[in-house]
Specification:
Number of domains: 2
Number of helices: 11
Radius of gyration: 19 Å
Strand order of the largest sheet: 1-2-3-4-6-9
Largest sheet: 6 strands, mixed
CATH class of the largest domain: Alpha Beta
Order of helices and strands: EEHEHHEEHEEHHEHEHHHH
CATH topology of the largest domain: 2-enoyl-CoA Hydratase, Chain A, domain 1
Distance between the termini: 41 Å
Helix content: 40-55%
Shape: globular
Strand content: 15-25%
Number of strands: 9
Amino acid sequence: MSGTVRIEREARGVFTFWLDNPAHRNALNDGIIAALTGAFRAAADDPACKVVIVRGTHGMFCAGREINDLQSLQAAGMDAINAAYARLHELNVAAYYCPKPVVAVLERYALGAGIMIAGWADIALAEDNCLIGYPEVKLGIPPTQTTIQLIRGVHRKAAVELLLTARNIRAPEAARLGLITRAVPAADLDNEVAAVVGALLGASAEAITRTKQMIWKTEDADYRSAIAAGVDVISVAAATNAAREGVSAFVEKRSPSWK
């Protein structure tokens, strides 16, 4: 099976997961899905990890899922298909519920499974010319997990048109729709990533995790339940060492020292 996930760890706590399957434009296969799931789970439990970046090697993000991988699944029967998509579900959960901030960096292609990964990320930055789309219906496949994350973040009419027509768009339109965070010229992409990562590292890691937890708890709740959950979260967080240090640093006009 081709491809792998290369993990680059920086001393400052930035872990970069490189999708490395250039023969297939960094498309996913079962091996890459398993490796990426394991990488997210390990990062979640690693106190040294402060930020996760997901990128593709050779200047391209991810062009979807390997066609030959799908063909092998179809030939293997229903049990194998169910098991394979259960593993994709595990990746979904590991990525979306990672307690560390996750930044996806999109170059050239983010199609199908590629834009699905970007949808699970907290922040998605793309070069202007990146091609984004949901081609599954052209292959006779409903885009299931991609639909779930898309319909929650984009206006229904825009989401349905992209899903049913398989129309490809460029990153600036994706940003206008709310599908990604921001589109920038290719020459500026690395600087934009560095700026976002710097801002994340400058914040309290504990506060970031608690913020993500509150989002998970409240995004599907009714307003009253969400407000109650927010009160519970801030009541605990306000007394933490991170909050004490953050407030003290502000009052003393110094940079906080996060531990």
